[in-house]
Specification:
Shape: globular
Number of helices: 13
Strand order of the largest sheet: 1-7-6-5-4-2-3
Number of strands: 13
Number of domains: 2
Oligomer: single chain
Low-confidence stretches: 1-8
Order of helices and strands: HHHEHEHEHEHEHEEHEEHEEHEEHH
Bound molecules: pyridoxal-5'-phosphate
Radius of gyration: 23 Å
Helix content: 25-40%
Largest sheet: 7 strands, mixed
Distance between the termini: 15 Å
CATH class of the largest domain: Alpha Beta
CATH architecture of the largest domain: 3-Layer(aba) Sandwich
Length: 469
Amino acid sequence: MTEPATAPKRSPLHPYAGRFEVHATMPEQPVSREQILDELRQMSTEEDRKGDTGRVSGSIYSGDHDHYHFQVEAFGYFGHANVLQRDMYPSATKMEAEIIAMTADILHGDENTGGLVTSGGTESLVTAMLAYREWGRNTLGIPNPQIIMPITAHPGHSKAFHWFDIDVLIAPVDEHQKVDVGWVRDHIGPNTVALVGTAGTYPHGVIDPIPELGQLALEHGIGLHVDGCLGGFILAWAKDCGYDHTPFDLSVPGVTSMSADTHKYGYALKGSSVLLFRPKSLRREQYLLIDDWPGGAYASPGMGGSRSGGLISATWASMLSFGKAGYRAIAQDIFRTADEVREAVLSHPELELVGDSLWNIAFTTTAESGMDIFHVNDGLGDLGWRMNGLQFPPALHFCITRPNTQPGVSEQFAIDLAKAVSYAQNPPNPMPRSGAMYGAGGAERPPKDKMRESSANRLDAIHEVGPLS
Ligand SMILES: Cc1ncc(COP(=O)(O)O)c(C=O)c1O
């Protein structure tokens, strides 16, 4: 049946229209709890299916539903608690401080290390950047502080530059996708207050040369933030698992802050990350302290005001339930699976690795192959895989998480990658269907010349109820 010209177009963003009622207005009468939970159960079960099979890169870090249920119970005890009110919820102080202390322990902090629990990686990054801006202004007397960040660093930093009007210099990377330290050295100026390095980067999972950046920071008396949002909780176990790597954490002289996301490889529920500062005094730089507000003296860290105690209790529970031994065992499986995925990629002369990651395997097609990596992605997508599409250079990455370590997954990946390479050698259409859109699993390909507009349209669309039926 053809729809009348005036009917709203079906949108892949709104697949439930026509299946569940669309609430474009508040229902007059209450909807039964049974119906609400039934709808939620259906959506959740269906949406988890793909990730649980282990065919998704990144995105889902644990995949263990028993672990989720355990954390949901832990969340439930304090989900309603506003931990801004510490007289009512001293448990939050115990648990939050222990989350920080445990993270500092595995990332080699010392007695001068302090931290915060934030709502996620981006909040950790913007909070760190704000601390450096304030430190630059208040301690170094620099009115327009500048931060130098590699092009591969996560855009979460750029949110801070955008919101807090901080000057940024974007440093290039070398052929291994690691920041060009010589360039950074040459560009540190009188306004530079901090450098950024990543361990490991979102695009290619590589560790920037943190010891060299630390040396530069020490020579110039400036800060160095290491973004370990993605890598912190997995790379922490690499040496124990027999994998060597560049030192990246607070054991490196000159590192003054580090972010590590508990809601990624800490396997906590979504909504938590840890930001560590060394020295602790740096943490103070971003506190908001107001003593003359009619509502009372106000003091708060980070971006949030009221915060749920549930995220703190669930994160604390997640960390304790693994301990070092538990995290190490999962990491061993992840590194082993990454070795197998890397081997599958290298078995194709048409493909090559980008970077040298231990667990976030980025790859592309060789120039000689004449193939488009996004045709490979289309082939993998047709077989049920969801890789992440990258640009500059065009590539894919397979960020290995716990669900990918299930028996048979890497073997099936090798089989399906071979099929995808054959598909890409002879694609049905010259233009691939997939592209490099962050957060869309490479499934979308907005027109290059309209990337910003089409991204803004997409953001608009995901905040609208969409078609009513
Ligand atoms: C290296 C890195 N830093 C920061 C972030 C931002 O984390 P979040 O999405 O939790 O805000 C990510 C997300 O993948 C990341 O990979």
